[in-house]
Amino acid sequence: MGEYIMKIAIYPGSFDPITNGHIDIIKRASSLFDKLIIGVTDDNNKESMFDIHERVAMIEGVVTDYDNVNVQTFNGLLIDFAKLKSAVVIIRGLRVLSDFEYEFKMAMMNRRLSQKVDTLFLMPSIQYVHISSSLIKEVAILGGDISTYVPRNILDKIKRKISAKK
User: Fold this and answer.
1) Is 133 one of the catalytic residues?
2) Which of 16, 39, 74, 152 sits at a 20 to 30 Å CA gap from 24?
């Protein structure tokens, strides 16, 4: 019998902020793989509410119950980070059909760049299908109730951040 190879997955994103939809994906992905790395990156195409260090700290605060999950930052190509971490899978969340075209193109490009790393699409539970970090921020800034979409400690951080900008 050959030696066991640990199955490592990467769940990448900006997580600005992390939502209950992200946590749903983390919970399920962590049960499928030996190790799940939450790869936090700065996406230059988006204006961030939280800096990368704040986001890492927030994510670390909500994944403490998952022994096989850790949080790391990365820059550059995701596929390079995946290879560096010996990941065999990239986890991507698909919420709605409009996500599919972009995610499909990214998965095909990553597959072209490395045949050793697959992409696994997971859909969040139905109550989170319509939410995104961008939508959460927009609703919060306009004074809407986002309490069912983010953990309590994240909600408090969002409220403090919005108050500080006023």
Assistant:
1) yes
2) 74
At 27, list the tokens.
């919970």
Catalytic residue among 27, 35, 95, 111: 95
Catalytic residue among 14, 22, 92, 157: 22
Catalytic one of 31, 46, 105, 159 = 46
Q: Which residue has the tokens 């983010």?
A: 150
pLDDT tens digit at each of 166 positions of the chain: 667 778 999 999 999 999 999 999 999 999 999 999 999 998 666 689 999 999 999 999 999 999 999 999 999 999 999 999 999 999 999 887 777 888 899 999 999 999 999 999 999 899 998 899 999 999 999 999 999 999 999 999 999 999 887 6
CA distance 134 to 138: 6
Q: In Å, what is the CA distance from 120 to each residue of 33, 57, 108, 155?
A: 12, 26, 12, 29
Whether the CB-CB separation of 73 and 54 falls below 8 Å is answered with no
Tokens of 137: 């921020």
Matching residue, tokens 């992390």: 18
Task: Report the predicted TM-score, pTM, of the whole model to 2 decimal places.
Answer: 0.92
Cβ(65)–Cβ(40) under 8 Å? no
Length reported for the chain: 166
**Catalytically annotated residue among 92, 133, 137, 157:** 133
